[in-house]
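Researcher: Next entry in the queue.
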Amino acid sequence: MSYSQRWQEVFGPLEGGDRMTLASTAPEPGVGSNGAGGLKHTGGPWTSAAGTAGDLRTSSETSRTVLGPGHEGVTAGGAGLTAVAALAAVRTSWEERLTAVRDECDALQGALHKVAREMGETDIGVRDEFAKVNGKPEGGR
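Model: Structure for this entry, 141 residues:
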């Protein structure tokens, strides 16, 4: 089997019929030339995931900050009880966990935004390169 025949087997015939396409070169966004749904990763899922990480960062920090006021008066009201010391240890543990979640989500949010930008730039670059091959101006479909 020749190299050209192998590529035609993978990507389909050059003229007509079903063939594999990149989402960024499909006639409609997210639709392959055969009308089936195509892979499109630009922006959406990565940006959405970054937003979710940001929301979790915010809610974990909010939860951490309300632990202190929620425990006010416990030490004075429960003086002499061993449960007060145990409660303080649990509070400290939760504050440390929530701080770790907050910090991890902060780092993750930045990384996910970076991926969204890079993937978007890659899609645009691939589209423009295909446009050149097809004799269309950059940014054209």
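Model: The chain has two domains: 1-40, 41-141.
Researcher: Noted, moving on.
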